[in-house]
Design brief:
An eight-stranded mixed sheet has the order 1-2-4-3-5-6-7-8, sandwiched between helices. The chain has two domains: about 10-145 and about 205-290, Alpha/Beta hydrolase fold, catalytic domain (Rossmann fold); about 155-200, no CATH class. The chain is of the alpha/beta class and about 300 residues long. About 40% of the residues lie in helices and about 15% in strands. It has eleven helices and eight strands. It is globular and about 55 Å long. Helix 4 (about 160-170) packs antiparallel against helix 6 (about 175-190).
């Protein structure tokens, strides 16, 4: 896997309730794209280096959401979806300074939707100029439950169990700990991929389980589709046909937003790894033909 190049700039936020680590790549003065990683409780690194394909043209801004990566917190207060929305508003003001184009992946896609709905209803934060939602976490409880069942099924397939057992029985842990961890990680995410062998090309990441559980608990029963129908924001939804998140989930989101839907064949939950050429072409086309600012 190619090495991750050093960022043009990095630091920690000053305006959020807890300091959050951020980094940016791309030409100074270029149009900014604010990228929201998945999780919850993960960190931005696993989107790299592939997502930096857009840094040839755009100012790519990433940050570790509260409680994960280099934005860990000692606070015991629950981290909820609203915590992340408020953090995103502050990050936007500090690092973007105008209505943001949000590029949300997985949970980050759902966070982008939650932010857009909150900004529309409360008027206390800038509405997004555009939304790029990449295999977004489901906006409806039923689809979220379907994803959990399908992912669990895939992870319990015989070949996954057999490879996991073989890895544990091997001497690789002692002989090459880094390779052992890499293979273990690839097996832990195999169910996300159309071709599980591609999992080795995903940068490993860790999820802070306390944060993940707290955020999902705050979303229990939330049905977001009616609120999305109130929005008038240009939106692109990209979805891998073999994603354990059902295609119907992204179809419903794109329909509610009156947005564009691109479904990639031979692709699971990680299109920037599995189908990068078609994936980035779809994003560039959308960004080229949609306005980057909103009135007001």
């Amino acid at each position: 896997m190619p090495a991750i190049p050093p960022p043009r700039e990095s630091g920690v936020t000053r305006t959020t309730a807890e300091p959050l680590f951020w980094a940016r790549w791309g030409p100074p003065g270029a149009e900014p794209l604010l990228v929201l990683h998945g999780g919850p409780g993960a960190h931005h690194d696993y989107l790299l280096p592939q997502m930096l394909a857009l840094a040839d043209q755009y100012d790519m801004v990433f940050y570790d959401q509260r409680g994960g990566g280099r934005s860990r917190t000692e606070s015991v207060d629950p981290i909820t979806w609203r915590t992340h929305v408020d953090d995103l508003a502050a990050v936007t003001g500090e690092l973007i300074g105008r209505a943001p184009t949000l590029v949300g992946y997985s949970w980050g896609g759902l966070l982008a939707m939650l932010y857009a709905v909150t900004a529309h209803r409360e008027r206390g934060m800038p509405s997004p100029a555009r939304l790029v939602l990449i295999d977004p976490a489901s906006a409806s409880p039923g689809n979220r439950e379907e994803f959990e069942r399908e992912f669990a099924r895939r992870q319990s397939l015989p070949w996954v169990r057999e490879r996991r057992a073989a890895l544990q029985a091997s001497d690789l842990r002692d002989r090459d700990p880094a390779a052992y961890r890499a293979r273990g990680f690839a097996l832990s995410v195999a169910g996300y991929f159309a071709n599980p062998e591609a999992a080795r090309d995903l940068t490993p990441f860790r999820v802070t389980s306390r944060v993940q559980q707290s955020v999902w608990a705050s979303l229990a029963g939330l049905e977001l589709l009616p609120a999305l129908r109130e929005l008038r924001i240009p939106a692109l939804v990209v979805h891998g046909r073999q994603d354990p998140i059902p295609v119907a989930s992204s179809e419903a989101v794109a329909g509610a937003l009156s947005g564009s839907l691109v479904v990639l064949d031979d692709c699971g939950h990680v299109p920037y790894v599995e189908q990068p050429a078609r994936f980035f072409a779809a994003i560039r086309t959308f960004l080229d033909v949609t306005p980057s600012t909103v009135a007001g």
